[in-house]
Predict the structure.
Amino acid sequence: MVYVSNTYEEMSAQAAGDLLDLLVELEDPILCTASGDSPKGMYRALIRLVQERKIDISGWYFVGLDEWIGMNGLDEGSCRYHLDRDLLVPLGVRPERIFFFDGRAPAAEECERVESFLAHHHPIDAAIVGLGMNGHVGMNEPGTPSSSRSHVADIDPLTQEVGQKYFSGKRTIEKGITLGISTILDAGRIFLLVSGSRKAPITRQVLEDEISETLPASLLRRHPSLFVYLDKEAASQLPVM
């Protein structure tokens, strides 16, 4: 299902409303959250809805999509840093409900810890993901096997370049730790959010070209409950819908 909104704000509000409608019907839902520019507006809308409707989110679990190796929430520009600021702190999420990768800890142990949490509870109920300029999802770069679980990834040079925008100064971001494609595809529903004209060409490729591991986000089309939210700029190269 693909939704195209006139503005980023409309896109964000629709995605937040749909996400909340799903989660309030579930017991102890597990929500996978991505950092990045596209989901940020949805988080603002979600926080507003939770507060306006006085929804109890104390039973929700939050799993992080990815993190830069060598960083955690104490590092400015890390994925956890942005999600703390944009979502977790405003919602008042308790630390014991948060399962994010710690990029400063031994990576193999972190992969096992997150995968074990999901195995002992249940798969992710809703996975929020964005779209990289080269078609990556999470830190699953082009060529990542579709069977991958949580793993350490070599970061593509284009992703390294684009990722500098999250930091106040130049940072080395050559490796990351991420949920794998297979872990994401286990989710009950996937919310793919894309905004801005710079993402229009890769959005068209991901949604229109052949499904392939060279274009990791295209693999999400195999999921029976993939919901894609676009503003009109991101959708500008798609056929008229």
In short: The longest strand covers residues 189-194. Residues 146 and 181 are 5 Å apart (CA to CA). Residues 2-231 form a domain with the Rossmann fold fold (CATH 3.40.50.1360).
